[in-house]
Amino acid sequence: MYEISMNLDLENVETFLKRISLLIDNGFSDEQASTAYRLTSSMALNEEQETEFNIVYQGNQEKLVYRVFMDDVESPDLYFFSSSELLPEAIANEYENMCEELGM
C-alpha cells in the first residue's frame, strides 16, 4: 500500500475531501467525501478512525483507505492509503494546490 498523510485544519477537511473526489472515477463522490468528513468532525481528542472505499481510479479498481488521528481537535492528521502509487501522488498534488490557494 502507498500512503500520503497531512495535517489539515478541520474547517478545510470537507473541502479537501471533495477535491479528492474529483480525482477519482467512481466510488468516492461528494457523498462519500461528506461521510468521511462527518466521521472526522465527530471524533474525540486522541481518537483514531479508519474507513475504506472501493474506488475506480484511472480505470483501475482499488481500495482507498482513509484514516484520521485526532491529535488536535482543530487540526487532525489525515492518512490516505491506496494500492496504486499514482493516487497518493495525485492527492499530494491536490493538497499542495489547496495550500497554495489558501496561502498556507
List keywords for this structure.
four-stranded antiparallel sheet; 3 helices; 104 residues; alpha+beta
Low-confidence stretches: none
Number of strands: 4
Through-space gap between termini: 28 Å
How can the largest sheet be summarized? 4 strands, antiparallel
Q: Based on helices, strands and strand pairing, what is the structural class? A: alpha+beta
Radius of gyration: 13 Å
Describe, in plain words, how this protein is organized in 3D.
The chain has 3 helices and 4 strands. With 104 residues, the chain is of the alpha+beta class. The chain has a single domain, classed as Alpha-Beta Plaits, CATH 3.30.70. The protein has a 4-stranded antiparallel β-sheet with strand order 1-4-3-2, with helices on one face. Helix 1 packs antiparallel against helix 2. The longest helix is centred in the C-terminal third of the chain and has 17 residues. The protein starts with a strand and ends with a helix. The mean pLDDT is 93.
